[in-house]
Amino acid sequence: MTSVLKSLAIISVLGIFFIPHYSESAISCSVVIQDLQPCVSYLTSGSGKPPETCCDGVKSLAAATTTSEDKKAACQCIKSVANSVTVKPELAQALASNCGVSLPVDASPTVDCTTYVLSDIYSLD
After folding, report:
1. pLDDT at 32
2. Residues in domain Bifunctional inhibitor/plant lipid transfer protein/seed storage helical (predicted)?
3. Neighbour tally for 7: CB within 10 Å
4. Which DSSP symbol is given to 101?
């Protein structure tokens, strides 16, 4: 439990001090971190389905990322934070679908944010 609290503290500090701030029109990284904080323990050491609090945060993030700017900002934030925490790749990739929602980005340090934003633009056709 202590290691989970330490991970949450590290993520919060990184979100506040080291992640670039985006324009007012895009979702802030602090909102992304707040929404996904309940998922940290699950993504690092969990299995099976995510806890309800995690899915509530994922659903909140999905509802908040409506524009291409929001999706790009959320993607860049998730990618930055994912570089500082070791997550299980299979859980990160399946997080949104396991919560019954669609997110424009996986919780992965290797995600290509331009691909997600471009695929979102092309899906509007």
Report:
1. 93
2. 29-113
3. 19
4. -
Task: Provide the 10 A C-beta neighbour count for residue 64.
Answer: 15
For the residues of 29-78, what is the DSSP string, one character each? HHHHHHHHGGGHHHHHH--SSPPHHHHHHHHHHHHH--SHHHHHHHHHHH
Structure tokens, 108: 């992965």
3-state SS assignment for residue 115:
helix
Q: Structure tokens of 48?
A: 């099976």
Burial of 30 (0-12, 13-18, 19+ CB in 10 A): middle
Can you tell me whether residue 110 is helix, strand or coil? Answer: coil
Percent of the chain's residues with pLDDT above 90: 29
**Amino acid residing at 97:** S
pTM for this model (two decimals): 0.69
Q: Residue 7: pLDDT above 60?
A: no
Instruction: Assess contact for 54 and 94: CB atoms under 8 A.
Output: no
CB 79 within 8 A of CB 30: no
